[in-house]
Amino acid sequence: MRHADVAATYWLKISAIVDPVLVEALSDFMMGITGAGVEVVVDLPHTQINAFLEKRNPEEAETEAIVAQLADYARELSEIFHVPVPEIRHSVIEDQDWGTVWKEHFKPFAIIPGLVVKPTWEEYRPGADEKVIEMDPGMAFGTGHHATTSLSLELLKGVLAEQAGDARVLDVGTGTGILGMAAVLFGADRVVGIDNDPDATAAASENAVRNGLSEKMSVSLAPLAGLEGPFSVVVANIVHDVLLELADDLDRLTADGGRLILSGILTGLQSEAIIGHFSRRGFSLVRHLRKKEWSALLFAKDPQAQGRCAAG
Questions:
Q1: Helix (H, G, I), strand (E, B) or coil at 93
Q2: CA pair distance 281, 247, nearest whole angstrom
Q3: Which of the 8 DSSP states describes residue 254?
Q4: Contact in structure between 200 and 141 (CB atoms under 8 Å)
Q5: Is there a cis peptide before residue 230, judged by omega within 30 degrees of 0?
Q6: Could you tell me the CA-to-CA distances from 76 to 38, 47, 73, 296 in Å, in that order?
Q7: Euclidean distance between CA atoms 98 and 139, whole angstroms
Q8: Among 3.30.70.120, 3.40.190.10, 3.40.50.720, 3.50.50.60, what is the CATH number of 10-105?
Q9: Cβ-contact 145, 41 below 8 angstroms
Q10: What does the alpha-carbon distance between residue 286 and residue 159 come to, in Å, rounded to a whole number?
């Protein structure tokens, strides 16, 4: 989550290096005990969950209590799922050093072929066939490095190549707005991005304006249940359990013959559960992409379609 622009004494970074099967449960627990947003980094030998807490006064006792609570829960999870005990780390980043630390790790990169994400402070000269999203994600918003983001973008680009100029897209859980902004760049006529975090919607709105996309992309805190559809493309890169909770509205808001892209799903039991659940609702699986332990699924809403699954 993005924090207020009030100077802080330091940032406390708490990290857990985990087996992929524990990511969802431990992420939820970390958010609960820290009150902070978390990021999941999968570009490492082991998946790492990071939480960043803004602090004004160093309170070692409080830090130790949080770390101990997290470590105890991590041990319990490892016993339940029969996986190695997660490694818990914590460090302090001085506020005046944060900008330097952040910039060292966020450089322009091709999130998928033909689409580059760059921070505002970096220069980048795009190639003839490249599109660029410029953003300043702040402290704890995602930058697009997560595997599920690139998987979702690959599916979204393919869908919009077929519907360009006549597509109305809904981005559920828009975060920094990467998927929504990319949809506009890929040719969507209109994009609606929603999120339940006011800091997220503020960041996504600023990024849309910064990239000159705000005429076609709107961002709001509107609840999913209150939206009126239908949308020709609905994309939701969240987590397995929430996708199931939102299934009624995701179904309702996807136009007949439209496309539904779902990600934030672990390959295996989670992807199988999502495929089964939405298939029973009349969605046909069109494509299943995988990257490391993560999956992204493309469905067509057509009860009569046979649907073909193309392995990615």
A1: strand
A2: 9
A3: E
A4: yes
A5: yes
A6: 20, 18, 5, 29
A7: 9
A8: 3.30.70.120
A9: yes
A10: 11
Parallel, antiparallel, or unpaired: how do β-strands 115-119 and 131-135 relate?
parallel
Cα gap 28→115, rounded to integer Å = 31
3-state helix, strand, coil split of the chain in percent (to 5) is 35, 30, 35
Torsion angle, alpha carbons of 144, 171, 38, 287, to 10 = -70
Retrieve residue 157's tokens.
Answer: 């680009």
Among candidate residues 215, 172, 229, 178, the one with its CA nearest the CA of residue 197: 172
Residues 262-310: tens digit of each pLDDT: 998 888 889 999 999 999 999 999 999 998 778 999 999 985 643 444 4
Q: Residue written as tokens 């992309």?
A: 217
- Phi and psi at 110, nearest 5°, equal -85, 110
Under DSSP, is residue 86 helix (H, G, I), strand (E, B) or coil? Answer: coil
Count of other CB atoms within 10 angstroms of residue 95: 14
Domain boundaries, the chain: 10-105, 141-311
Rounded to 5°, the CA angle 288-294-296 comes to 35
Strand partners, 126: none
Q: What is the Cα–Cα distance from 186 to 189, expressed in whole angstroms?
A: 10
The per-residue pLDDT for range 187-229, each reduced to its tens digit, is 999 999 999 888 788 889 999 999 999 999 999 999 999 999 8
**Strand partners for 170:** 192, 234
CB atoms within 10 A of CB 139: 18
The span from the CA of 109 to the CA of 138, in Å, is 17
Q: Is the pTM of this model over 0.85?
A: no
* Strand (E) or helix (H) holding 190: strand 190-194
> Distance between CA 121 and CA 198 in Å, rounded?
24
Helices (H), 40-177: 60-81, 95-105, 147-163
Question: What CATH number is given for 141-311 in this structure?
Answer: 3.40.50.150
Distance of CA 283 to CAs 228, 278, 299, Å? Answer: 20, 6, 6
